[in-house]
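Quarterly update from the structural biology core.
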Amino acid sequence: MHIEEGQTCICPLKGVIDIISKKWTLLIINALGNHGRLRFNKLMETLNGISPKTLSDTLKGLQTEGLITRESFAEIPPRVEYSLTKDGTELRKSIIPLLKWTANRSSIDKEQCANCPPQIRAHNKTNLGEQK
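Predicted structure, tokenized:
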């Protein structure tokens, strides 16, 4: 493929769009950005309402795209932790404006937010932009 001067190839965007357009992906990226490293069950707890299969499938997709790492520890019981890669951290930085925009929208349904688990409330501004 020939790219003319001044043009940028955005073909790799397709793979990223396929994964980040999934319902839980941005919330997983943000949770890992807020907490640094998380085990599967802690992610389940943080993302109240996600099924184990959906979390597992989404984590696999994020790992395939190079956005997260999965580290296994040779312990009994076995321990696995997930964290953002450099690319995952860059993605998180790029979605922070989206999270802030969402938090600042005047059309936010406050009743809906009141019923939302505190871990995923977009208007919880204390978690926006923090990296552990």
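The chain has six helices and three strands.
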